[in-house]
Amino acid sequence: MQAAATLEAPIRVVPRARTTTYTSDVPTITTLCSTCHLKDLCLPCGLAGNEVQRLDGLMFGRRKVKLGQPLFHEGDKFQFIYAVRSGTFKTSLTLRDGRQQVTGFHMAGELMGMDGLASGRHASVSEALEDAEVCAIPYAHLTDLAAHNPNLQHIVGRLMSREIVREHSLMMLLGSMNAEERLAAFLLNLSQRMKARGYSASEFHLRMSRAEIGSYLGMKLETVSRTFSLFQQQGILEVDKKHVRIVDLERLSYAVEARVQ
Amino acid sequence: MQAAATLEAPIRVVPRARTTTYTSDVPTITTLCSTCHLKDLCLPCGLAGNEVQRLDGLMFGRRKVKLGQPLFHEGDKFQFIYAVRSGTFKTSLTLRDGRQQVTGFHMAGELMGMDGLASGRHASVSEALEDAEVCAIPYAHLTDLAAHNPNLQHIVGRLMSREIVREHSLMMLLGSMNAEERLAAFLLNLSQRMKARGYSASEFHLRMSRAEIGSYLGMKLETVSRTFSLFQQQGILEVDKKHVRIVDLERLSYAVEARVQ
DNA sequence: CGTCGTATTGAAGAGGATCAAAGCGCGTGG
DNA sequence: CCACGCGCTTTGATCCTCTTCAATACGACG
């Protein structure tokens, strides 16, 4: 056996020896951080204006990824960190028996692929949940640049740390919350991220299926569906398939702490 | 509400505004990586001999931590990354309602505290499960040093990435494994880490309680106990309180994939 | 020797999982 | 344009795993 989730050492899941062919691998358009509308959410976040311009030296390209297409696969060589420009992605792990665990959903300005640095190969799959576009940031160039810019170095570290903290939260959720708390935490988180991107915090479209939400939250799709229905009955949400409206943010927040005391 | 586990953004758990007083904060003894017996497991892992000597410039101190004592707390200012020299630690998160989630157990050569870089404050507590000693590596010095050494920079990145991958595995475990698989995966992982440190891979002493194992694995202490008993009945383990002997590694490994097909 | 913390074990109960069926939206092809 | 099939979702009924509550045992320590 070696598909087991090893906990401290790098996981050894299905090392598919495939070289993914990216049908969507269009000629690169050079993109500049300094003129990007996402610069306050994305990599440059925290850098001063003149420092952001140094990032322009990266000259990274964009890549369009169509709905359902992979951005990278488990086992792919690690070369880039990807920043979402538009669209939504899910990242997931697969066990040899086919069980999947969604490890994250990623929207504009968020980074993916940092798990690949550990072993030089990506440990997870990333797949577009709608037509999407990413910046492919060559990691080697990034560290070159960081070598002459302590601030940038610090920021890269902070981004990785943020990923660690994000996963901490998810562990908390998976380890000690019930179905209602999980879904509530998920929706609140989504709501905050939508808001940060200038969208409504109370009404949005889910890009992922019930099964994908379930995998992410460690529950079955039926349970996800039931919990949505429950929240609707309670007047906390209005749900129509993938369209969600948060009616009572107060009580949704409270649901996360329902079992308190 | 704000104790909710936010998933993408940094978690906001109990920001205890306390300045921990470390009773065990003894005068620092300067320690050198190049002469350390853990150099193949720890930070210098992957650096060539002459490069390791550059790490000696760090001049970091050691700190002894007694059983039950905290190394750092949630909310403590982030200054150091800690490398375990001896002993075992657990790191955990606390929700406002007191629910705890153990996020990791750490033994000789392993690093802790990288979650603090995200916000400048530690997001988790670290506590010694036995009398222990750590190296306190000043993060600022580390990045200074890395600025002139691309290899070191790469290694720091890799260590953080490894932490991300480790947590991926735990998410997989928490999200899609049953009690038997969880405990089996836990024990196998422990076994591998003991082996890497020159201890027996088949017989060891658990430093943590059933409750702590349970918290880590997302199950109750009774279930942990019952699963230990089950494995013993099946002749897979011999268990006497905290002393564990793996009798049938084959079947323990198989237990991780029991539900396969 | 009594007490406290930890572990084990049993019995009962609850929360999700599983199995199953039906509804809905959507694209395809006749 | 409509019929059909497919994928996703919802909902119900039943089952099962793990939790909860409780009692007991064990060892360390004052």
UniProtKB/TrEMBL annotation, chains A, B:
Please name the InterPro entries in this protein's record: cNMP-bd_dom (IPR000595), cNMP-bd_dom_sf (IPR018490), Env_Response_Regulators (IPR050397), HTH_CRP (IPR012318), RmlC-like_jellyroll (IPR014710), WH-like_DNA-bd_sf (IPR036388), WH_DNA-bd_sf (IPR036390)
The HTH crp-type domain is annotated at 177-250
Q: Name one Pfam family in it.
A: cNMP_binding
Q: Which PROSITE patterns match?
A: HTH_CRP_2
Entry's Gene Ontology cellular component terms: cytosol
Q: Does the keyword Nuclease apply?
A: no
Q: Which UniProt keywords apply?
A: DNA-binding, Transcription, Transcription regulation
The molecular function GO annotations come to:
DNA binding; DNA-binding transcription factor activity
Matching PANTHER family: CRP FAMILY TRANSCRIPTIONAL REGULATORY PROTEIN (PTHR24567), FUMARATE AND NITRATE REDUCTION REGULATORY PROTEIN (PTHR24567:SF75)
Q: What is this protein called?
A: Fumarate/nitrate reduction transcriptional regulator Fnr
* Organism, as annotated: Ramlibacter albus
